[in-house]
Amino acid sequence: MTQTTHIQIFSCGGTIDKVYFDANSQYEVGEPQIAKVFREANVSFEYAIESLMRKDSLEMTDQDRQLIRHKVEQCQHRLVLVTHGTDTMPDTARQLAGVADKTIVLTGSMTPARFEASDAEFNIGCAVGALLSQSPGVYIAMNGLVFPGASVRKNREAGRFERLPT
After folding, report:
1. What confidence score (pLDDT) does residue 3 get?
2. Hey, how many other C-beta atoms are within 10 angstroms of the C-beta on 3?
3. What is the pLDDT of residues 20-35, one digit of tens each?
4. Where are the alpha helices (DSSP H) in the chain?
5. Crossing angle (nearest 10°) for helices 89-96 and 62-74
6. Residue range 45-79, pLDDT digits in tens
7. Which candidate in 10, 27, 95, 131 could, as Cys together with 18 as Cys, close a disulfide (CB 3.0–4.6 Å)?
8. CA distances in angstroms from 146 to 17, 48, 99, 107, 165, listed in the order given
9. Which residue, 4, 1, 12, is CA-closest to 108?
10. 12-51 burial string, b = 16+ CB within 10 Å, else e?
């Protein structure tokens, strides 16, 4: 009997899930968009999505990160994808360090998934590939690259993630 691949997704908000409100030119974090991405991509693995919060990552607290860690630790599946705002994604990756026997990948986007010209679908696909190919640990998948979670930063000026200098 073949084992079925199952990915647990924890949605935390961030730009990937933002909705644009034309009336006041502001964004608000909406429903998780990853379900739509997976549906349109016709993925052939099982998954479950749990929305933990709908926050811009700049508004996340230590308690929010503790909740994420708790949910990941309690999850029965070993493949965990966390959609997250990009500004503090490395902080959450560091909070997840040391979770045993799980491959955890954080991803997000620089533009909302609802936008036609968004990096969200590409980053989600890269994150799924990382989940299926990396050994247990914590990773960030952004801009077509996979980084160890503790060795990455967001370069706001360049609009991309990069490995921390050693």
Report:
1. 58
2. 5
3. 655 555 666 667 788 8
4. 34-41, 62-74, 89-96, 120-133
5. 50
6. 999 999 999 888 888 999 999 999 999 999 999 99
7. 27
8. 21, 23, 18, 10, 16
9. 12
10. bbbbbbbeeeeeeeeeebeebbbeebbeeeeeeeebebeb
Where do we find the tokens 């070993």? 78
Tell me the domain boundaries of the chain. Answer: 6-163
Q: Is the pLDDT of residue 139 over 90?
A: yes
Q: Which fold has domain 6-163?
A: Rossmann fold (3.40.50)
> pTM of the prediction?
0.89
For the chain, helix, strand, coil in percent to 5 are 30, 35, 40
Residue type, 125: G
Q: Residue 83: is its pLDDT beyond 80?
A: yes
How many Cβ atoms sit within 10 Å of the Cβ of residue 66? 11
| Cβ pair 90, 152 in contact under 8 A | yes
Tell me how crowded residue 110 is: count the other CB atoms within 10 A of its CB. Answer: 18
Q: Whose structure tokens read 């079925």?
A: 4
Q: How far apart are CA 17 and CA 155, in angstroms?
A: 21
Sequence-separated (6 or more) residues with CB below 8 Å from residue 42: none
Both tokens assigned to 130: 């990382």
AA letter at 39? R
